[in-house]
Amino acid sequence: MTVQFWNKFLDEQLGYFDGGMEDIMKVLKVSYYHLPPGLQVCFRYCSIFPQDHEFKKEELVQMWIASGLISQTTGEAENARDVAEECLAQLTRKSFFNLKLRNFHFERNECHEYYVMHDLMHDLATWVSSGECARIFDANGSKKVKRTVRHLSVVGINSFPADIIKSFSRFKNLRTIVFEDCHDIQDNTVCSVEEVVRRDLKSPACRESSLIQ
């Protein structure tokens, strides 16, 4: 957003805000809705991860690309990776992400670089991604997920009854499944979930690519 936009906001609207949580979220929503669509969708995607999640640049860029979030205009010299990295850079400059450094080799002065979302930004991402992104914490949780979901995080679930696996077939727009802290889940369970979903996907291109990240 431009300096002119915020100056107008300060002059005309700031007086209506009392600094409460609801008002803070209103301001954050204004910031979000002024993002270009390409940045909005990348930001929403990150709601499938928990608060305080440490995003590594390489991993996040690859997930955005694999999930089909990075669009390219014909004739552009930039490749998908360049576009994704620029999306992350812009979201960071606009404070949707915070860049953090952790010194892991003091003598060599080497630092580990990662990105985090402030809790309020994560709340915002969860709100604006309703119906598109979801997190489930038990097998039955899949029944509560909206049919329109595109990106799904499965947290700490190590087994799925056959009827629950079958229920995944209703997610015809699903592009991403992330298994988080599912340390004891069997490979055949993961394959069964992906197979059921892939079979009923609307897009032929999606049926040919992996959903699991």
TrEMBL record:
Organism of derivation: Oryza sativa subsp. japonica (Rice)
Entry-linked InterPro entries: Disease_R_plants, WH-like_DNA-bd_sf, WHD_DRP
Keyword list, A-Z: Plant defense, Repeat
Protein name (database record): Os12g0205933 protein
Every Disease resistance protein winged helix domain range: 48-125
Pfam families: WHD_DRP
GO process annotations (BP): defense response to bacterium; innate immune response-activating signaling pathway; plant-type hypersensitive response
Taxonomy, superkingdom: Eukaryota
Cited PANTHER family: DISEASE RESISTANCE PROTEIN RP, OS12G0204800 PROTEIN
